[in-house]
Design a protein that fits this description.
The protein contains 15 helices and 13 strands. It is of the alpha/beta class. A seven-stranded mixed β-sheet has the order 1-2-3-4-5-7-6. A three-stranded antiparallel β-sheet has the order 8-9-10, with no helix packed on it.
């Protein structure tokens, strides 16, 4: 698979159009690569040599900034001191660790492979190996999680001086094993009111501890924002390499076929097997509204006027004045920013503003 990934990198960098007549380059070799992210699947299984080969291929074919953020996703049960040291030696300078909880009961409920001890140990191991830039994920709103337990989870993050934290309310997707278990009354359903309370607790505790709440689900110490995730919210172009990987050039979104065998056979023939959609102006506007409102910078009405239409700008302003409660938004010049209360209703507010 690594050989195929390297070949896809070469195809994208050396050919503006693939064998099917579609532009696959997205980013030219002259444009600066600011972030590289090893995610999806289990990238922590890659050896040090494989990571080095992939990074060398990218740097050979593209112009990569000297201070590029290079992140690898890992779960606590994947992490050992030797592994983390190897990742650092391979060129990884940031980790994203899926801890989810420091409470054994909740990890069992979520069917996580790691335990509470590993959840704590992996943070110490990352620090010992020299990682001062890393992020952890936590989940709130599980059925048994009390507010006091949630405070203890968050306090652990603060006490350990974790530079970045991403927090998500537990959601139960349709047609999943968890949804089936809930329907069969074998597991409790989530309580959205309790989740809202725990989200408010999170916001207050992180603010008091000096974290910047720069995106609805993300908190960072000064200068430790996730540059990679921020590029998505800012609508920047990106290339995804490998089966199921998504790419975006500002107007067209593509995604590689998910079938590994088909992907490997296609790459052998110098074809990147992908599907695509061209976003309409309405879709582009709606995506901008949705992503920008999630951030601390907010939605820019002038940007909407310059890139879309004066009518859309006026329509949005009218909705904000008439249908969105004042305690949910802050208006700073041309910027619309969600308040803490507004963040609880971010998706609903976005939908109201959609074209």
């Amino acid at each position: 698979m690594v050989n195929a990934l390297i070949k896809e990198i070469e195809i994208r960098s050396e050919s503006r159009v693939n064998a099917e007549g579609s532009d696959v380059s997205i980013i030219t070799p002259e444009e600066k690569i600011e972030t590289i992210y090893f995610g999806g699947g289990t990238p922590s299984l890659l050896s040090q040599l494989e990571i080095k080969r992939l990074l060398s291929s990218i740097k050979e074919k593209y112009s990569v900034k000297s201070n590029a953020e290079i992140t690898l996703e890992a779960n606590p049960d994947d992490i050992s001191f030797e592994k983390v040291r190897e990742w650092r030696g391979a060129g990884i300078n940031r980790l994203s660790i899926g801890i989810q909880s420091f409470i054994e009961r909740d990890l069992i409920w979520m069917n996580r492979a790691h335990n509470a001890s590993q959840a704590l140990d992996c943070i110490h191991l990352a620090k010992e190996a020299g990682f001062d830039n890393f992020s952890i994920d936590l989940i709130f709103g599980t059925p048994h999680l009390t507010n006091e337990e949630w405070k203890e989870n968050v306090q652990k993050v603060i006490d350990l001086n974790v530079p970045h934290i991403a927090c998500y309310a537990l959601t139960v997707e349709p047609k999943t094993a968890l949804r089936k278990m809930i329907e069969l009354k074998k597991k409790e359903d989530v309580d959205t009111d309790a989740q809202a309370v725990q989200y408010r607790i999170l916001m207050q505790m992180m603010r008091d501890a000096g974290y910047e709440h720069y995106e609805i689900s993300n908190f960072a110490k000064p200068s430790f924002r996730s540059r990679h995730n921020s590029s998505y919210w800012e609508g920047k172009k990106y290339i995804g390499i490998g089966p199921s990987a998504h790419s975006y050039d500002g107007k067209i979104r593509t995604w590689n076929k998910s079938n590994n065998i088909y992907y490997l056979k296609s790459i052998e023939q110098n074809i990147i097997p992908f599907e695509m959609e061209t976003l309409t102006e309405t879709q582009q506007l709606n995506e901008y509204i949705m992503t920008s409102l999630r951030t601390i910078e907010g939605m820019d009405l002038k940007y909407i006027q310059d890139h879309f239409s004066l009518e859309d700008n006026k329509r949005i302003q009218a909705i904000l004045k008439k249908d969105v409660a004042k305690e949910k938004i802050i208006v700073e010049g041309e910027k619309i920013i969600l308040t803490d209360e507004g963040k609880l209703f971010g998706d609903a507010i976005s939908v109201k503003l959609f074209s």
